[in-house]
Specification:
Length: 269
């Protein structure tokens, strides 16, 4: 029994002696080892810092109970929704101010309407509004935005809603007049894309780029003087008796949500 205990003591002494020599060698080589591992240690320390920051952040989140965490997420969503709503109201407010300016300087009867849905593509451009025959709307009524910019007319009439075909729809046409010296009269039609064409203009008419185009008033029940667009290009062919103008509309239904439907007086209708 005694020999066993003495053997264990000798083993512990031997291990202690070996450990002492290892420590002595380690400390003597410490400067050399430090210089060798420095390039490796630097990215490892950075990575450790990145891990510790994430762990600390998740630890903070982990300190919150499920109700508090859900509340934080809900507050974030509410703030985002409020921002979207604020920007939408700003845009609608700007549109309404422009509409009011038009209303104040004209005596034309009108009805304010909200756009319910839109159908816009290269082959069709229409939208549905929330007013109809019960509100005094008639088929062919002019529809404007902003400060009297003509964007289309009522083509399908319901009792409480109506479909408006915009001026860029290929099936749409409207009698127009150019604000040039001769007040050129023509018919503007929609085309594929966002442009319009005015065809069969006599070759001797002086048409230039940037001429303004307005409604002529020759098409009931659309009044005269509503802004339609601006001449983009004039096309003339040698020897041809007519010329053609490409017009760029001033209204863009992609950006609007409120319109005015113009109601003609009994005399006009």
């Amino acid at each position: 029994m005694k020999s066993s205990q003495s053997g264990k003591k000798r083993s512990r002494r031997l291990l202690a002696l070996v450990g002492f020599f290892i420590l002595a060698i380690f400390f003597s080589l410490q400067g050399f080892l430090t210089s060798m591992i420095a390039p490796i240690a630097s990215p490892l320390v950075s990575f450790g810092t990145w891990i510790s920051e994430r762990v600390f952040w998740w630890h903070q989140i982990g300190d919150l109970d499920s109700e508090d965490l859900e509340l934080l997420y809900q507050q974030r969503e509410d703030l985002l929704i409020d921002r979207v709503e604020f920007e939408r109201l700003q845009e609608e407010n700007s549109q309404l101010r422009e509409v009011l300016d038009f209303v104040e300087r004209t005596s034309i009867s009108h009805i304010s309407a909200q756009i319910l849905s839109k159908s816009i593509s290269n082959s069709v451009s229409r939208f549905v509004i929330d007013v109809g025959s019960a509100d005094g709307v008639i088929s062919g009524s002019a529809v404007v935005v902003g400060e009297g910019i003509f964007i289309g007319k009522v083509t399908e009439l319901g009792k409480y809603s109506s479909t408006v075909t915009t001026i860029t729809d290929p099936t749409h046409s409207v009698a127009v007049s150019l604000l040039n010296e001769s007040r050129t009269i023509g018919v503007a039609t929609g085309s594929v894309g966002d442009l319009m064409t005015i065809e069969l203009i006599p070759i001797d008419e002086q048409i230039e780029q940037n001429d303004l185009v307005v409604t002529s008033g020759l098409e009931a029940p659309i009044p005269s003087g509503l802004l339609v667009g601006i001449i983009n290009t004039v096309i003339q062919e040698t020897g041809a008796p007519f010329q053609k103008a490409i017009m760029e509309p001033l209204g863009d239904i992609r950006r609007i949500s409120t319109v005015l439907v113009l109601i003609p007086s009994d005399e006009d209708s």
